[in-house]
């Protein structure tokens, strides 16, 4: 057999394998996505605007979506669950009905923490309480990054302090033109400690700009955020913003979940590793993924110009 014949044979066996698998896959996907009723949160509201897309909305409009202890922990629980949910392939995170995306940490909650600390009369024990609290809050924000499903944040109006830390752990940031941002921590006597100092320089690559913002807490506009690469698209209204975010999510959700989630895993890993370590990591991922039915399904669909259908993951 010459080279050409080998290729033709391989291609037809791939085709046969994939045709039966596509059939199987279609059956597996027949029930498409289940609803979000299984998610029971008070400070978050979940819905499914299109198949495999979950919309998470902050739901503390009377407190401008300020992060109290409950919101912090529900964010972590929510993203940990979405990570393992086969009915979710992409997440859109927005500020819901609140006037602002978020006012940052709940200042009344911080006062309660102050009272708890006041009741402990020894510095080492007070330190332990603070260490546990900060670690919990750090983990809540890292949950967006640790979730294999791409997270698109849709920011409107104010995005302050903890909110700015949070959006740097997302994959894609969109905002309205009226959005504004502030790395506010120094103004409340804190060094930002839930990820912005680590992630923001990596997101935008402009260390001088990040330091200026971190040292001054100055408010900056969506235009500036766009110019620096913090947000990748601006919209005139909140409706257009959500529409744009859900459209993008829907496009991503139609791709192979094996490919998309492997891509996120490797992008996150490569963010703080050398090029060689990143290449070693993706090689290990693709050793497995290139054997998955998604690979064949996607290749065959691109050859036949049909829309591929992928099984739940
Ligand atoms: C271990 C810690 C790790 C994490 C650290 C995180 C740190 C941070 O997040 S620092 C940032 C803290 N946030 C702020 O400093 C923002 C303070 N708020 C404002 O600047 C304004 O309120 C805001 C621009 C958000 C909104 O202004 P607007 O004029 O539109 O509304 P207001 O009338 O000011 O507020 C409406 C009601 O919301 C309450 N509220 C606002 N922010 C907070 C908050 N951060 N925590 C709790 N509650 C907040 C405000 O008190 C009003 O309530 P009410 O008077 O009862 O209507």
UniProtKB/TrEMBL annotation:
<comment type="function">
    <text>Isomerization of 3-trans,5-cis-dienoyl-CoA to 2-trans,4-trans-dienoyl-CoA.</text>
</comment>
<dbReference type="InterPro" id="IPR029045">
    <property type="entry name" value="ClpP/crotonase-like_dom_sf"/>
</dbReference>
<dbReference type="GO" id="GO:0006635">
    <property type="term" value="P:fatty acid beta-oxidation"/>
</dbReference>
<dbReference type="InterPro" id="IPR014748">
    <property type="entry name" value="Enoyl-CoA_hydra_C"/>
</dbReference>
<keyword id="KW-0443">Lipid metabolism</keyword>
<dbReference type="GO" id="GO:0005777">
    <property type="term" value="C:peroxisome"/>
</dbReference>
<comment type="pathway">
    <text>Lipid metabolism; fatty acid beta-oxidation.</text>
</comment>
<comment type="similarity">
    <text>Belongs to the enoyl-CoA hydratase/isomerase family.</text>
</comment>
<dbReference type="InterPro" id="IPR001753">
    <property type="entry name" value="Enoyl-CoA_hydra/iso"/>
</dbReference>
<dbReference type="GO" id="GO:0051750">
    <property type="term" value="F:delta(3,5)-delta(2,4)-dienoyl-CoA isomerase activity"/>
</dbReference>
<keyword id="KW-0413">Isomerase</keyword>
<keyword id="KW-0276">Fatty acid metabolism</keyword>
<protein>
    <recommendedName>
        <fullName>Delta(3,5)-Delta(2,4)-dienoyl-CoA isomerase, mitochondrial</fullName>
    </recommendedName>
</protein>
<dbReference type="InterPro" id="IPR045002">
    <property type="entry name" value="Ech1-like"/>
</dbReference>
<keyword id="KW-0576">Peroxisome</keyword>
<dbReference type="Pfam" id="PF00378">
    <property type="entry name" value="ECH_1"/>
</dbReference>
<dbReference type="GO" id="GO:0005739">
    <property type="term" value="C:mitochondrion"/>
</dbReference>
<keyword id="KW-0007">Acetylation</keyword>
